[in-house]
Amino acid sequence: MNDIAQRMLSDIHDLSADIEARAAQIEAERRLPADLVHTLRSIGVFRMYVPQSHGGLELNIASAMSIVTALSRIDSSIGWLAGIGATAPLFATRLPRNVYDAMYRHGPDVIIAGAVQPTGTLEQTAQGWRANGRWAFASGCMHADWLFGVGVVSANGKPVSGANGAGGPPLMHGILLPAGAWRIEDTWDVAGLEGTGSHHISLTNAPVPAEHLIDHINGESCVPGPLFQAVTHLLAPMGSAMMVGMAEGALDAIVALANTGRQQFRVATTMRESEIFQFELGRVEAELRAARALHDAQVRTLWQRALEGTLKDDTLYAQATQTAVWVANVCVRVADACFALGGGAAIYDSSPLQRRLRDLHVAAQHAAVHPRHYVTAGKLLLNRG
């Protein structure tokens, strides 16, 4: 980890008490307060994956993810928005270079948010491209400078087939436009990660310049560097970085509760002195350490492959996603166990244990870590012979 990342971690540590004290405010407002957005900008969170040529930090993968984990450990919503805000600039590298340069002409702290599910349509008309659609889960859209969605290309109301021709998957393009071109629909009333402001965003017959359409899956980067070879390969691992931090926060919370001297009803000893509690706490920590270790190992592999110029690989993508799914499941189990250990004290809105429980269950519902992705890993294993 370089000096820049160490400095960022030090800054985050100094802010932790203030952020923790505002957890209820962040949830109640269902978005990140403006001053905390400014704080994340000043720390450098939104420029971690921006190239140095454009004023960014261009951190290695492990350093950026360690910063997101540290923020997630303090507050789940802030960590989630930091992970999204750090990774989203990779989408912009698929723009034409002149458009990319214009996007960053005022500095590297451009905030990009959006959604990758293809729930919109794109049609080329005599007047140019037009986009329609609604995209859910646009985390950070309330404070973003640019928004992103994916549209299925259609002609005469029917999807256009992609590279494989008729019968193949539809042709899709990413749409990257200034935030003012989009409508934000107030839909984020949810069980967890309430402070992320992950509302729906929509476009209605919106003009889209051709140079603002991108191929975020197979497109080439307009800027050089090992970090910019692939976009999708880094999405699920960043999710792991967030969830490991959230689970560490849950473990911190149950340890803090035990250290208050709390003694549960009809129990002979305090939580801290109970061997049953100690046993369960030790078991839970072992699970979390295993999840952290696998995540860290996967991140090291991703960065090594990036340095070798081989990051863009289907097998590597499947393995990174497989790792993220397993890590997500472990982190949910950790939150569940910590909540159960907290007993009746954990159920109150004032308890961080119930908040971590809700946040991790919601995070694990994300499509990037759905258990169905194990199927791809299983197929690869069967085909090795």
Would you give an account of this structure?
Helix content is 47%, strand content 13%. The protein contains 12 helices and 9 strands. Strands 1, 2, 3, 4, 5, 6, 7, 8 and 9 form a 9-stranded mixed β-sheet that branches. α4 (61-74) runs parallel beside α8 (235-258). It starts with a helix and ends with a helix. The model has no long low-confidence stretch (mean pLDDT 95). Residues 17-85 form the Acyl-CoA dehydrogenase/oxidase N-terminal domain. It is an enzyme of class 1 (oxidoreductase). Its EC number is 1.14.14.12. Residues 240-370 form the Acyl-CoA dehydrogenase C-terminal domain.
Features:
385 residues; alpha+beta; Butyryl-CoA Dehydrogenase, subunit A, domain 3; globular; Butyryl-Coa Dehydrogenase, subunit A, domain 1; 3 domains; Butyryl-CoA Dehydrogenase, subunit A, domain 2; 12 helices
List the helices and strands and how they pair.
Elements: H1 3-21, H2 23-29, H3 34-43, H4 61-74, H5 76-87, H6 89-92, H7 97-103, E1 112-114, E2 120-125, E3 128-135, E4 146-155, E5 158-159, E6 172-178, E7 183-185, E8 200-208, E9 213-214, H8 235-258, H9 275-308, H10 314-341, H11 352-363, H12 374-382
Parallel strand pairs: 1-4, 2-4
Antiparallel strand pairs: 2-3, 3-8, 4-5, 4-6, 6-9, 7-8
Helix pairs in contact: 1-4, 4-5, 4-8, 5-8, 8-9, 8-10, 8-11, 9-10, 10-11, 10-12
